[in-house]
Amino acid sequence: MNVPVAVRSLLCQVLGWSDRKRWSDTSELLPDWDERTRMIARLIPSGAHVIEFGAGRRVLERYLPSGCTYIPSDLVDRGQPTLVCDLNVEPRPDLRPLDLDTAVFGGVLEYIQDLESLVAWVTRDVSCCIASYECARTRRSDWQRVQESVARARAGWVNTFHEDEFVGLFQREGFTMVHRELWQTKDGAEPIFAFERVRGRVATEAATTTAGL
């Protein structure tokens, strides 16, 4: 167990912080994660307008299909044109001026304090979201949930969602899971999910809003 990471994780969870010290250290940005990034890139269509949260070494940028535009975002500056953004701090930035359609989270969402609000925020301004997430084995109602949450904190993670619970966060915002595959690691398998906005959701919401005026 990495004791400093575990201690900082618990502090971050209690105080609502992000572990800026950890992610400012480039040695924490492991090349072992590059295969996951390549898998994510294969799910992105040509011509997409992409923002990558937790851009790190900007590996995704190298593997994007032709015609894509790319904006990196992270806790610290990763080079132009990085959107420096702490996803644990609200209000989060307005993404509409960036004219995006695809958001990517590779190895990021486990570190988000309020994952429900983050999903609600990002799904307002994109039609596709691709995310990896190390899902919990327990459900919210299971008595072992507390024990698993503590174990996850040792890895630096600050939230705990079973796969059904995780997928449900996107479904509540009008998105459906269109793809799921596993990234195999020496420690096991981590799912990568692709979510897309359900057709007609935006139009229906707009019509409902107009009718209420």
Q: What's the SSE blueprint?
A:
Blueprint: H1 3-15, H2 20-24, H3 34-41, E1 49-53, H4 59-63, E2 69-74, E3 83-84, E4 102-105, H5 115-122, E5 128-132, H6 145-153, H7 163-171, E6 175-185, E7 188-197, H8 201-211
Describe this entry's structure for a reader:
This protein has 213 residues and is an alpha/beta fold. Helices cover 32% and strands 20% of the residues. It contains eight helices and seven strands; from the N terminus they run H-H-H-E-H-E-E-E-H-E-H-H-E-E-H. It has helices at 3-15, 20-24, 34-41, 59-63, 115-122, 145-153, 163-171, 201-211; strands at 49-53, 69-74, 83-84, 102-105, 128-132, 175-185, 188-197. A seven-stranded mixed sheet has the order 3-2-1-4-5-7-6. A hairpin with a 2-residue loop joins strand 6 and strand 7. The protein is globular, with a radius of gyration of 17 Å. Mean pLDDT is 88; it is low at 206-213.
Concise account of the structure shown:
By secondary structure, the chain is of the alpha/beta class.
Give the strand content.
15-25%
Report the major sheet: 7 strands, mixed
User: What is the typical, i.e. mean, pLDDT?
Assistant: 88
First CA to last CA: what distance?
Answer: 56 Å
Helix percent band: 25-40%
Question: What is the approximate shape?
Answer: globular
CA-atom Rg in angstroms: 17 Å
Order of helices and strands: HHHEHEEEHEHHEEH
User: Based on DSSP secondary structure assignment, what is the total number of beta strands?
Assistant: 7
